[in-house]
Design goal:
The chain is built from 20 helices and 15 strands. With about 625 residues, it is an alpha/beta fold. It has 2 domains: about 160 residues, no CATH class; about 400 residues, Alkaline Phosphatase, subunit A (3-Layer(aba) Sandwich). The longest helix has about 35 residues. The radius of gyration is 27 Å and the shape is globular. The termini are far apart.
């Protein structure tokens, strides 16, 4: 029989007990809602001790604040209402409401993209979603917790276990549904080649004003003779509102989506880095925002990918493929063709990073890397090289690596046999992180300018990319379609960005003036592409892979997250050759594997930090 108290009595101990129990359940729900990838760890945890070891970090990151909030609400309700309060209902409402809101509010906001987080409409939507969640949670709490009857405290751990198991089963690796014979029979060879060019951070907000002034002749040609669209990027569910230079859009995650046609939950690369926790055989597939000597981190690499890339699909289909600098493409896939991975930095011995190795001597790749000077990129209007003191050493190092890809890429495209070729360019993203204040002369960025500079480094890099683009176009034959895509756009750093968690010291943050935006670029050009059209519907990252496959006569998998952008192709072509589908290209279950590169992993972490991606 439940205890009864005279009117006005305040059962502080009972309130504390009830608040803690509901807070534990609420923190579990909140952690799962924000970091849904936790469910994947069930497959990696043979021991309950491992589970507890990982769970404590989630409790600190998200569960702790939810628990404290729930406990505070319960104590305040008891203080003001005393015996008239229904024990546990306030804590249940708060914890369930915050947990549900952490799912509903971001989903509602992301559905409005593109958006800026300081937009009053966006903030109102997020607030409305949270209030709606609290209202629904109150109704649920009324059913769970009733007057004159003890709350179902015993049910909290049971519900938590069922929830973990249920979600874990929902996010298990899907069973392979691809049939090799069905895949081969569905291929209709078109004889077309496709070159996929990824330009990190490219944005129309820089390109369009330059086009209006008569600059960027090669971009202009592609726009006038091809189809252009606006890419809407994907915000990672991992810490999406942290104030960092990625704004929740992490490049290796996004470029893996481009090359696989699958979302992160499918391809398995979820963050810039993975976290190793003592006692766990497998890493947590994202970086925990905790500074602890007990944890170690490893940059994400292609070995962690769980699904096939375009290189695998097309190579298995008898096509010859090639790639240079795609992020990430190490460790190498053994394909019918050649790959220069993102880990090749111009060494004389590129073992394990480039295949076949004779490409190094054939194209004198170390000499191409050494030939770079900062004036290749930052050339002043008067023909003088930009003052080296303006360009930080970290920027020059990143540009040196990119220069190798931008020179070797057209050479390989011209001289090597291939049916599909992918190429990645990093420079626009690098310059926008470091020099946006010299491009955007509007109010709010003046304090970031360390010196007076009558030169726009951002536009200088776009001219540099445009020159490379002209060289690349000149080596393509009349049988090749070109697809250009960015992983996101760019813009000034928004001080309003870190709404949930700000891991950055102001002194460190001042090193960067630009960060990511959701609106990027998409271009198609070639014999199968409509001329001078603008795509009405926004383009998704996952649309690139099925578009390339369709152009080459390959079927589109139903488990792809994207679709072929036939709205930018010749209508007669589409009418004569409708899109064909197969269930999947995945013919066997593949788990991501951890590969360590002692020579470069620590260097890559420094590079990610230099771009503002890591605190």
């Amino acid at each position: 029989m439940p205890k009864s108290y005279p009117p006005g009595t305040r059962d502080w101990f009972g309130a504390l007990r009830r608040g803690l129990v509901w807070a534990i359940a609420g923190s579990a729900l909140g952690a799962l809602a924000v970091e849904w990838q936790l469910a994947r760890l069930l497959e990696l945890m043979p021991l309950f001790g491992d589970f507890l070891r990982v769970w404590r970090y989630f409790a600190l990151y998200w569960g702790g604040p939810v628990a404290l909030t729930a406990l505070l609400i319960e104590l305040l309700v008891v203080a003001f209402w005393g015996a008239r309060a229904v024990p546990g209902r306030s804590a249940a409402t708060t914890t369930l409401g915050l947990a549900g809101g952490s799912l509903l509010a971001p989903a509602w906001v992301l559905a409005q993209r593109p958006f800026e987080l300081h937009d009053p409409k966006i903030l109102a939507l997020a607030g409305a979603a949270l209030l709606l969640s609290l209202l629904l949670a109150y109704l649920v709490a009324r059913l769970l917790v009733r007057p004159n009857r003890g709350g179902p405290w015993w049910a909290a751990p049971v519900v938590l276990v069922l929830l973990l198991v249920g979600i874990g089963r929902s996010f298990r690796l899907p069973e392979p549904q691809g049939d090799p014979q069905q895949i081969q029979s569905a291929i209709q060879d078109t004889g077309r080649r496709v070159l996929l060019l990824g330009i990190d951070g490219a944005t129309w907000r820089v390109i369009d004003p330059m086009l209006a002034r008569g600059e960027l002749p090669n971009f202009r040609r592609l726009v006038e003779e091809g189809a252009r669209g606006t890419l809407y990027s994907t915000v990672s569910p991992i810490q999406p509102l942290i104030n960092s230079a990625s704004s929740g859009m992490r490049s290796p995650v996004l470029w893996t989506t481009v090359i696989t046609g699958r979302e992160p939950r499918d391809h398995g690369i979820l963050d810039m880095e993975v976290t190793f926790v003592p006692g766990l055989e497998e890493p947590i597939p994202f970086r925990l925002p905790i500074d602890s000597p007990d944890l170690s981190y490893l940059p994400s690499n292609a070995g962690m990918r769980r699904v096939k890339s375009l290189w695998n699909i097309l190579s298995d289909g008898g096509k010859r493929v090639g790639s240079i600098a795609w992020w990430p493409s190490w460790p190498l896939d053994h394909v019918n063709g050649f790959i220069v991975s993102d880990r090749y930095r111009g060494e004389a011995d590129g073992s394990g990073r480039i295949e076949p190795l004779d490409l190094i001597d054939r194209y004198q790749l170390p000499e191409l890397a050494q030939a770079f000077t900062i004036g290749d990129v930052f050339q002043l209007c008067e023909g003088e090289e930009m003052d080296r003191s303006v360009v930080p050493g970290r920027v020059e190092k990143l540009f040196r690596m990119d220069h190798l890809a931008m020179v070797a890429g057209p050479l390989l495209a011209e001289r090597e046999p291939w049916d599909f070729f992918s190429m990645y360019v990093k420079s626009p993203d690098v310059v926008q992180h470091n020099f946006w204040e010299y491009h955007d002369k509007g109010p709010g960025l003046e304090h970031r300018r360390q010196i007076d500079l009558d030169y726009d480094p951002v536009e200088g890099v776009y001219r540099y990319v445009d020159d490379m683009l002209g060289w690349l176009i000149s080596v393509l034959d009349d049988n090749t379609d070109l697809i250009i895509i960015s992983d996101h756009g760019g813009g000034p750093w928004l001080t309003e960005h870190g709404l949930i968690l700000d891991l950055w010291k102001s002194a460190e943050r001042s090193r960067w003036s630009g960060n990511h935006r959701k609106d990027g670029i998409f271009l198609m050009w070639g014999p199968d592409v409509r001329r001078g059209v603008e795509l009405e519907r926004p383009v998704k990252l996952a649309d690139a892979a099925p578009t390339a496959l369709y152009l080459m006569g390959f079927p589109v998998a139903k488990d792809f997250s994207g679709e072929p952008r036939v709205d930018g192709l010749d209508p007669e072509l589409v009418a004569n050759r409708p899109v064909t589908y197969i269930p999947s290209y995945e013919t066997e279950l593949k788990r991501g594997q951890v590969y360590v590169d002692p020579a470069l992993d620590s260097s890559i972490e420094k590079e990610l930090r230099s771009l503002g991606y890591l605190n």
